[in-house]
Every structure is written in structure tokens, then in C-alpha cells.
Amino acid sequence: MNVQYPVELSGAKSSTLMWAQEHEVGAAALQQLRNIAALPWVHGVRVMPDVHLGKGATVGSVIAMYQAVSPAAVGVDIGCGMEGVLTSLTAADLPDDLAGIRSRIEAAVPVGFRAHEYPVSVRKLGLDRGWDRFWGSFTSLHGGVQDREKKAHQQMGSLGGGNHFIEVCLDDDDRVWLMLHSGSRNIGKELAERHMRIAKAMPHNADLPDRDLAVFLAGTPEMDAYRRDLTWAQEYASRNRAVMLALVMQAVRKSFAQEVKFEQPISCHHNYVAEETIDGLDLLVTRKGAIRAGAGDLGLIPGSMGTGSYVVRGLGSEQSFYSASHGAGRRMSRNEAKRRYTVDDLIAQTAGVESRKDAGVLDELPAAYKDIEAVIAAQSDLVEVVAHLKQVICVKG
Q1: Does residue 1 surpass a pLDDT of 60?
Q2: Backbone angles phi, psi at 230, to 5 degrees
Q3: How does strand 68-69 pair with strand 216-217?
């Protein structure tokens, strides 16, 4: 049955349009969306096809607010997003055994809880702009993170764990792409959690349907402090991905005898806040598990570690608040995936991909995620496909 998107969420107090059907979304996530739509500061909510339950605010949601912002609507991994670049390599250039390239990437970029022993020399990578200003503003961040500066330096250019990844992919023309997914590491998480605690304690949030949706209000010192730290963490995430991509490009260059060239990278946040004009109003727009898809905006929408990804171009849909999905979205929780599947399932579902195939990444197997093809099809009015990518190497923490 063909469904015409968007559809209106039943029982929502403010305009809530969905690029998914209610029966496809869990009851808890639907209630979470209704809780968000009931906040007095909300102008409207837009729900992406990868929607699923999150902490406070639903992953795959776009929330436009008047003079207010909810830290939970951004998430704890502030500035998390994607980076990708097309290379001059083709499938014919790749060796039969890809383990060596994967090892080089893993040696260049710390994964999981690991960090660099010493801060990366960004000058040697050709990324030497604005760092003095950026690190110089660390002292203005929340007092509770002032002893984390050394760790933040060492984690700059590191991947993290969970659904973060580095991939080598092939497009339908057998061209090689590099792609990665990461955010603001521990420093972003610590800043987010501190501000969430502050927001929950504020009197105007006392009667909310879910205290995790606590907001800051414009014109208050608490909002100013959050916006300051949020902006810094978003920049940290962007710089982190740029450093990682440069390290991966360097590792790939060393893996081939011929010269490897790279196009202009594509970069997009999918956990962030922006000041935007929506329906003629100046609003604060939070995208949590959603990318901006304004007319011509390039974006990256990954699937899972065995199913491939998409490079897309935004169509500028006003209905969606100029947004699109950030990925396939989880179909089940990590714990459920571990209960239902085995390492043998992981091995079968990642056949042909050079990657970890052990219990440590079992909760990331493709079956734990929604069908990326269906997710892309549901938002054909939001983005056009530029390229379809299929990973041949996947590095995870």
C-alpha cells in the first residue's frame, strides 16, 4: 500500500507531521512525541522515518520552539554527525584482502574509550585554522568540566563506540568513498548532562509531562550558558570528524603505491540546535537524529554495518522544517538485539565486509536497525539520492 507522507500524529497538541506510520512506531516513542508536542513553547514537531525512542526526546525528531530549547532534544552526543569523501580510487584498486587497510585505519584512529596518547598535530594534517581561538575558549565552559581539558585534547580525532564507525565504501560506479560517524566524545556528553540537571531543577519545568524534557528559556543566564557550551561542543564534534577524516585519508594513502586524491568532503551534524526561520517565525530548531535538508544541502544517511548508506541532496521541504533522517534508526534496543541474536548471526549479516565480528559489536548487527531502503523511500519528497554506498570495510569501537 502506498502511503502519502507526511501523516499527522493523532493526539498531538501542536502540529506534528510524521514521515512514518503510527503502527510502525513503538507506543513509548509515540507518547514521547506527544509529550514533546504538548510543551507550551513548541511551534511544531517533525518526525523522520528513522524515528525511535530516545532519552527525553525521540531520536529522529525535529522540534521548533519559541525562545526555548530542551537539552534532551539535542541529545548527549552534541554535534554528532557524518563526514564523507569521494576518492580517486576504484574497486579495481583495492586488494583482495582488506585487513591491512582496516588495520592501518585502526592504528591511526583510537576507537571505543581509547584516546590519542598525545594530541594530534593538526598542523601536519593541514588543519591549522582557528585552533587557538577554539581551545582558548575552554575556560569559559561549565566549571564542572575544567579538569577535562587534557582528555578533550587527547580525544580530538577519536571515534568512540556504539553506533559510531569509519567505513570504506563503494558506490554503484565502483568508486571508493571514505565515511565516518562520530560526535563530541566525552566532553560533549559531560556538558550535556550537566545542563540537563540544571534545567530539571528550574521552577518553570516542575509540571512537565516528562522532566527529561526540561527547557531553558531565552533571556536567562542558564540559557546563555547552555547555548555557549552547546556551540563549543558542536564545533568540537565538527573538528573531531575533520581530524579523523584527515587521519583516515592519510592511512589510505599509505596503503596504495599510486597517488590517491580526494574530493571536497561532505559534512553534516545530526544532533544540534540552529536558529532558523520556520513558517515566517524566528525559532530555535533542534534536530536529534535528523539532518538539515534545505534545497541543495548535501547529507549522508547511513544504514548499518552490513547494509550500506546514501549520499543525498536536500529538496528544501518546508513541511519537514527542511529536514531528513540521520540514518536507518534502531528497530530494537541494544539489549534486545543481544538477546535475540548470536555472533553467528552477526557474521552472516556482515558477510563480505571486513569488520569486527565478535560479541562486542553484536548489538550493532544489521537486524537491529530498520530497513535503510524503506527509510530512504519514505522521504523521497525530502531528499534526492546522489549516490548509494556499500561498505567493504567497517571499523567500530
Answers
A1: no
A2: -60, -45
A3: antiparallel
